[in-house]
Amino acid sequence: LVLNGLLYMIVVQPIRRLSKIADEVSMGNMEAPPFDPKGNDEVSALEGSFNRMRISLEKSIKMLEELG
Questions:
Q1: What global pTM score does this model have?
Q2: What are residue 37's phi and psi, to 5 degrees?
Q3: Which of 15, 21, 1, 20 is nearest to 46 (CA)?
Q4: Using CA atoms, how far apart are residues 35 and 22, in angstroms rounded to an integer?
Q5: What gap in Å lies between CA 35 and CA 48, rounded to an integer?
Q6: What pLDDT digit, counting tens, does each position of 30-47 carry?
């Protein structure tokens, strides 16, 4: 039971949060909150990568708006 609780807090909960925010961004909501990666695990690395991808997407959108 304790192991199950720890797994939920360490893996499942951050992945659900990441999924929710990724879904919001994919629907065009660039105001969705950024992630605050904590730790050096795979989930934190995924959150950091998503933040970088989001910043790149925002820059690309700005460039397209300036051209058009």
A1: 0.76
A2: -60, 130
A3: 15
A4: 10
A5: 7
A6: 888 888 888 888 888 999
Model pLDDT for residues 2-61, shown as the tens digit of each residue: 999 999 988 899 899 999 999 999 998 988 888 888 888 888 899 999 999 999 999 999
Residue 41 makes CB contacts below 8 A (sequence gap 6+) with: 10
Q: Which helix (H) or strand (E) holds 65?
A: helix 42-67
Q: How far, in Å, are 13, 39, 44 from residue 30 at the CA level?
A: 22, 25, 20
Q: What are phi and psi of 59, to 5 degrees?
A: -65, -40
Q: For residue 63, what are its two tokens?
A: 């460039």
The encoded tokens of residue 44 equal 């934190």
